[in-house]
Write a structure and sequence with these properties.
Blueprint (H helix, E strand, L loop, with lengths): L1 H17 L6 H25 L5 H29 L8 H8 L7 H8 L6 H28 L6 H9 L2 H15 L5 H26 L11 H23 L3 H11 L7 H7 L4 H27 L3
Length: 307
């Protein structure tokens, strides 16, 4: 079922690849900027704010989501240290762009996977919205810190880059609306919904266009261990922890699916924004997404048995 739901997204990536000649490379880069500053933030805000959230739910699911992101970040740093990577001018930005894929996650595919829970789909979707809403800010903080390291930014400028990141602002604002329990005016809600609905297709088109100018094999440096962390090691550790502690139900199922998601389709946007290799990161994103066609259905199937 997960693979079937992924088919339209994969088709859009192929369309982006085929239609890449409609725009010059700098035109696609401008589209990336539009996605970074407007469309994807609208998607994140909408996902986080669409359902009322109780304080206890925010604390539980938010803490678990942040723990998974932090674990992915820590595992990625260990891999980098073991690989002997340095912060040389030739490899720093590209390594950082690749490494961020070890703890970032594809929100859209998470909601697709939630649909596989049939009668529990609405509960898992609501829980996943909280996990995503609080996990995204932390994942982006880790990514921005790593991508800007070595760029001679002052502490003030680095703090500004983290705090004013559109993804972070949108996620936090959406959670604030959800916690308040207030309903946005209909015309405002409709505006955000229309912007959010365009985000994923345009990001995927841009991703396909970026893939046209890069190779898919061999993978870039650090890519294979990063894929292993994101798609195998991280969900395995989460499943083992829940099994050891005897945790089941919506909580365990939601967090397991979250931990098994491939990297974010917008990862190349952050890389491009902070000087990384957009095309290389697009390749890593595509590899992660393709490999998840094998891994995500398995982890989702396992997660359904926890309820």
């Amino acid at each position: 079922m997960v693979l079937w739901h992924l088919a339209p997204d994969l088709a859009i990536i192929v369309l982006g690849y085929l239609l890449r000649g409609l725009l010059r490379p700098d035109g696609w880069q401008q589209i990336d900027k539009l996605c970074f500053y407007l469309l994807y933030p609208a998607l994140l805000f909408g996902a986080a704010s669409q359902r009322p959230i109780e304080g206890s739910q925010v604390l539980l699911f938010g803490s678990l989501g942040c723990a998974v992101v932090t674990l992915g970040f820590a595992l990625t740093l260990i891999v980098r240290r073991l690989s002997g990577s340095t912060r040389s001018a030739d490899t720093s930005d590209n390594d950082a762009g690749t490494m961020q894929n070890g703890w970032r996650f594809n929100t859209a595919l998470g909601f697709v996977a939630a649909g596989a829970f049939t009668q529990h789909a609405s509960e898992v979707t609501a829980a996943l919205a909280i996990v995503v809403g609080l996990g995204i800010p932390l994942a982006n903080i880790y990514a921005i810190v790593l991508l800007t390291k070595g760029q001679a930014l002052s502490r003030l400028n680095l703090t500004r880059e983290v705090i004013l990141n559109p993804f972070l602002l949108a996620s936090v604002a959406g959670i604030g609306v959800a916690v308040s329990g207030k309903t946005m005016p209909a015309h405002v809600s409709s505006l955000i919904e229309r912007l959010a609905n365009t985000a994923i297709p345009i990001v995927l088109l841009s991703l396909g266009a970026a893939l046209a100018s890069t190779r898919l094999w061999p993978p870039p440096r650090l890519a294979l261990p990063i894929h292993a962390i994101k798609l195998l090691v991280l969900p395995l550790l989460v499943w083992a922890a829940f099994a050891l502690l005897g945790v089941t139900g919506i909580t365990a199922a939601t967090v397991l699916v979250f931990s098994a998601l491939p990297t974010a389709s917008a990862a190349h946007l952050l890389a491009a924004r902070y000087g990384g290799d957009r095309n290389q990161v697009a390749m890593v994103v595509m590899q992660s997404t393709a490999l998840s066609l094998l891994s995500l259905p398995l982890w989702t199937s396992l997660a359904t048995r926890l309820i």
